[in-house]
Structure formats: C-alpha cells, structure tokens
Amino acid sequence: MAFPIVFRPGRSLVGDPFWSSVDRLVEDLWRSNAAQAAAAGFSPRLEVVERNSEFVVTAELPGVDEKDFQIEVHGNVLTIRGEKRTEESGEREGRHFTERVYGAFRRSIELPLEVQGDKASASFKNGVLTIALPKAEAAKVRHIPVSAS
C-alpha cells in the first residue's frame, strides 16, 4: 500500500521529524553502500619498472596494514593478496554509529622474464609497497662480442 506524499505550500520540511528520519535513513544507506562498494571493489594500483638487473613493482595499498597482505613469487608471476578493512565511527544527532567493511583483494602480474624470488626484497611505507625482484641469471641480457673473420 502506497501513501501519497502531500506538499502544502508555505510548509517547511526542515525540522519535520518524519522528513528528518527519511533524510537520516537515506544518508546512512548511501554511506554504507559507498563504503561496501569501496572495500569490495578494491584493487591495488600497480606500476612495474624494468631496470638492467631487476624489476621494481610499486603497489598502492591505502588503508591496509602491513600484517594484512602477503607477497608471493612463482616463476615470473608476482601475486599480492590481502584484505582491506575499513571501520568508521562517529556520533551525529546524539546517535553513535560504527560501520565495518571487509574486502579481500588479489593482484597477480606476469613479468616478461623469470626472477630470483629468493633474492626479492620489499618495503612498505605510507601505504605504498615497493618490491625489488632481481632478474634470473639466465634472463639477464648479455652482450656478445663480434670478431672480424
């Protein structure tokens, strides 16, 4: 059953308890859906730079703690997986609220050459993960001297 909404000229909706409740409900739903979508759809942005002897991969992991992700190397495939946790607390109009959203992420990237996973190193600072992956000896470029015959 639908109830008609009647607007009366000269009547302000500001301060009306019914419309204040509707406004709070819409705002809460929007904030909750936006937070869930952000966590569920999180995928770290990656940048890969190739140098003479190594690949350097940079991943943006804002809001992720060092304990909440893992790095794996298998052959020439680098995988970063983890979980992003978002928690928001506050108080508005005398109401206290807490929202928690969790979402797993996984990024795998195939490097063009095999790397030495046992010699890889990583650092994490201010939400930015930097991974240095030395190229495998067999993958390094070697210059072949040419002799005149």
Provide an overview of this structure.
This protein is 16% helix and 42% strand. By secondary structure, it is of the alpha+beta class. Strands 1-2-7-6 form a 4-stranded antiparallel sheet, with no helix packed on it. It has a single domain (17-139), classed as Immunoglobulin-like. The chain is rod-shaped and about 95 Å long.
**CATH overall fold name:** Immunoglobulin-like
Uncertain segments are none
CATH class wording: Mainly Beta
Instruction: Tell me the strand order in the biggest sheet.
Output: 1-2-7-6
CATH architecture grouping? Sandwich
Query: What is the percent of helical residues?
Result: 10-25%
Keywords:
Immunoglobulin-like, 4-stranded antiparallel sheet, 16% helix, 42% strand
